Amino acid sequence: MSCRLKPITREEHLRFVAARPSVSHLQVPSWGDVKPDWRAESLGWFDEGGELVGAGLVLLRPLPRLKRYLAYLPEGPVIDWSADGLERWLEPMLAHLRGRGAFTVRMGPPVVARRWSAEAVKAAIADPGARRLGDVEATEHEPGADALAERLRRMGWRRTEPGGADGFAAGQPRHVCQVPLAGRSLEQLQNGFNQQWRRNIKKADKAGVKVVRGDQEDLPVFYELYVETARRDRFAPRPLAYFQRMWQALTAEDPDRMRLYLAHHDGEVLAAATMLTVGEHVWYSYGASTGRRREVQPNNALQWRMMCDARELGAAVYDFRGITDTLDEDNHLLGLLRFKVGAGGKAVEYLGEWEYPLNRVLHKAVALYLARR
Questions:
Q1: Where are the transmembrane segments (predicted)?
Q2: Residue 167: what pLDDT?
Q3: What angle in degrees, to the nearest 10, is found between the helix axes of 240-253 and 219-233?
Q4: What count of Cα atoms within 13 Å lies in the side-chain half-sphere of residue 165?
């Protein structure tokens, strides 16, 4: 099959997304409105009969003082990655973006490579000889993932390592934690939790923790906890305006695209989180909590309510997003891995992000600049 690529409207893009069970929240048209420093464009792939068979949201980030761009398709594009002749999909995209002034194209194929069950992750953490998830045998290997990676390499694409959160060093997590929801009752979900999770949910309920849905007006409350979390966990927080823009853009596209949840106890909000939904896929997006009264376990109560609501929305998967692949006890992120897989989640490894240099001189110069910075 030969593919023809051209820009498509937001409406065409949304219809394509709505017809699929799962598309990343980073690949819906409204995500471009969340990123005003990037120029967004929806691209469509059409078959010989003129049917839209693939779509991608590309973000174009300009180089200072030059009309050249980094072109980025986070967790996309949404095409048939198992199809023969992958060149027929990707070469028209490269040609189009070269015409737009891109010097490098980065993409994140939404293709799973391996999965580890919660039991396998627990055993790996306890194994002194295992340093990373990749050191232990995966529970599931996705057929074709290794072959796809090799095809991309032969085409001139190179896998990248995730960078920082700002500037050109954009990157999405290669490893995530996902809890399967499809076909499972609430009782079955709880039975999949480890003993600590079940105990903490009971503690929160007995202590009187109440989890409620918030609205745009509650974002400053969420943000106050988020800044406290950033100080505690040593990361640079995004500004409040980012979350306000995110709310306005995503809920304008779909009222349920973004939700806010708040965990109350004795008149105080102790934890809060945002939840994103596209089709049958639900993501825990941003979380925040205070260090006060942690003994009442507001975070477990918050996540349990979000999982229940995700299941009610018809979600097939509840996605905890990024996890570390390190099993080093000295790494402070290991606690987060334990927390997420404790909910019965699987550790999932995607194919990762890949780059194609359209202008090798500029590509190398920017890479050197970022390395020195």
A1: none
A2: 32
A3: 130
A4: 4
Q: Tokens representing 232?
A: 């505690």
pLDDT of residue 168: 37
Interval 125-163: pLDDT, tens? 999 889 999 889 999 999 999 999 999 999 999 999 754
Least confident of 125-134, 349-358, 364-373: 364-373
pLDDT of residue 165: 35
Q: What is the mean predicted confidence (pLDDT) over 339-356?
A: 96
DSSP one-letter code for 2: -
Q: Computed over its alpha carbons, how large is the radius of gyration of the chain?
A: 21
Contacts for 132 with CB less than 8 Å, ≥ 6 apart: 325, 326, 327
Q: Does CATH place domain 182-315 in 1.10.10.60?
A: no
CB of 70 closer than 8 Å to CB of 36: no
Whether the domain at 1-108+354-373 and the domain at 182-315 fall into the same CATH topology: yes
Kindly state the tokens that stand for 210.
């109440």
Whole-angstrom distance, CA of residue 93 vs CA of residue 241: 33
User: Confidence band (pLDDT; 50, 70, 90) for 23?
Assistant: very high
Helix (H/G/I), strand (E/B), else coil: 310: helix
- Give 3-state DSSP helix, strand, coil % of the chain, rounded to 5: 40, 25, 35
Q: What is the pLDDT of residues 42-52, one digit of tens each?
A: 999 999 999 99
> What are the helix and strand counts (H, E) for the chain?
12, 16
CATH code: domain 1-108+354-373 is: 3.40.630.30
Supply 53's token pair. Answer: 């068979």
- Which of 226-230, 232-236, 305-309 shows the lowest mean pLDDT across its residues? 232-236
Question: What are phi and psi for residue 108, nearest 5 degrees?
Answer: -130, 85
What pLDDT does residue 164 have? 40
Structure-token pair, residue 175? 């490893």
* Eight-class DSSP state of 79: S
DSSP string across 345-365: PEEEEE---EEEESSHHHHHH
Q: How far apart are CA 20 and CA 350, in angstroms?
A: 19
